[in-house]
User: Fold CYTH domain-containing protein from Pedobacter endophyticus.
Amino acid sequence: MGKEIERKFLLNHAEWEKVEKPAGKHFRQGYITTDPAKTIRVRATENTGWLTIKGMSVGATRLEYEYEIPLTDAIELLDNFSESELEKTRYEIEFCDKLWEVDVFRGQNQGLIVAEIELSSETEQFELPLWVAEEVTHDKRYYNSNLTVHPFQDWK
Amino acid sequence: MGKEIERKFLLNHAEWEKVEKPAGKHFRQGYITTDPAKTIRVRATENTGWLTIKGMSVGATRLEYEYEIPLTDAIELLDNFSESELEKTRYEIEFCDKLWEVDVFRGQNQGLIVAEIELSSETEQFELPLWVAEEVTHDKRYYNSNLTVHPFQDWK
Assistant:
């Protein structure tokens, strides 16, 4: 499957409020390991599950292998194997021919909204929507695996 | 997916030599984690790959979730993520309506042959072929995840 190149941004919440949004998808996700060299993530959405293995980030690039699994398996894996979990609602927004995934976090991460864009190379150019603010691609605090352990509401 | 109930035996090598065997399948397998509470195994055979998550054993029973993945993914996962690896050839032998999986280990585990039988309950009765010897279901040394780290040829 191979490599994922992704950049991550905080949001201008006032501008984001004005955006007309499609229905969001609820994600429950947890980590079987949060080791950054081999993160193993389980995600349960409304109707399917995903098992994902990610490697160490080098710049904005990371090895990623993702497999669709039955939802019942995903829930059992979360219940039996996950070290830590988070919940969020994802909105998919098209802007200038690129897909943005905007994650509105819940629970202990309530108040945090993060937008991600997947690129085909580290140097690919793209347009920024008005609701996009500061880039946090390289800030490890925003790794979802870290947000399960050190949630946003505990930050100073 | 759920539970795997499995019993494991050593072999009488002299009797095993006499058995007419089908073609064996070569397995390369490694572990992303060898934590016995959540073992994550990647297996590459001649033409497909498997990703398997196993929980802690309780008696002969263990939670197990197994997914077929592309062979190229399995090889990349082994190359990039596995902590430790082993190689073996597996023979599938039918005996009295039950399937036995006989693993002939290679490399640092050369000399070890182990037979496994999957059961539908811990108390299920079954016939033992002549080539089956001592049971080692509960001997952790024979866990494949342990054989990658403490191979048979290093045992005293």
The helical segments of chain B are 13-18, 71-81, 144-149. Residues 3-154 of chain B form a domain with the Hypothetical Protein Pfu-838710-001 fold (CATH 2.40.320.10).
